[in-house]
């Protein structure tokens, strides 16, 4: 996903640079044509160093690359308000770690000794307040050795109702079973 975002941003950056060079080229030709009409013979490309033109184009290109990359940061992410569906304007209100369990447990929950590099992992839970509808949404992050809010979201659940009509549903990644249907 990150590769795809960089690719899209890179294409936009390239198009911006190309567009800039074309625009400056046409501007120069236009100005020179008008100057010629009034009897002046000027050569803008000789007056203005091409490095300045390319430098400005480069800055614009990099800026648009970063801007698009930033714009796409939530793309493909399942972080949304479970009441109105907004992806932006969510503020984290609380978070906690789930219970640690062994990656390879025995039936009674003790570590499976046959697995050499067995390790403990836990879910992570974060709660987000929506600026638009004021609902509270709970995200369940995937099991991880180092649980945190940056781990992929695998479940989105409404925790507190928002204002107006609810327009979206809870979401869970395929194969993820709800830990509890009870709202907190
Ligand atoms: Zn909302």
> What class would the helix/strand composition place it in?
alpha+beta
First-residue to last-residue Cα separation = 32 Å
- Estimate the helix proportion, in percent: 25-40%
Mean pLDDT: 90
**How can the largest sheet be summarized?**
6 strands, antiparallel
The tally of structural domains comes to 2
The helix/strand order is HHHEEEEEE
Radius of gyration: 27 Å
| Low-confidence sequence ranges | 180-184
Number of helices: 3
Q: What's the β-strand tally?
A: 6
Shape: elongated
Listed once per kind, the bound small molecules are: zinc ion
The portion of residues forming beta strands comes to 15-25%
What does this structure look like?
By secondary structure, the protein is of the alpha+beta class. 34% of the residues lie in helices and 22% in strands. The chain has 2 domains: 2-71; 90-172, no CATH class. The chain is built from 3 helices and 6 strands, in the order αααββββββ. A hairpin with an 8-residue loop joins strand 4 (136-144) and strand 5 (153-160). Helix 1 (2-37) runs antiparallel to helix 3 (50-71). It is elongated, with a radius of gyration of 27 Å. The model is unreliable at 180-184 (pLDDT under 50). The structure holds zinc ion. Zinc ion binds next to loops.
Characteristics of this structure?
single chain; 184 residues; alpha+beta; six-stranded antiparallel beta sheet; 3 helices; 6 strands; 34% helix; elongated; disordered C terminus; binds zinc ion
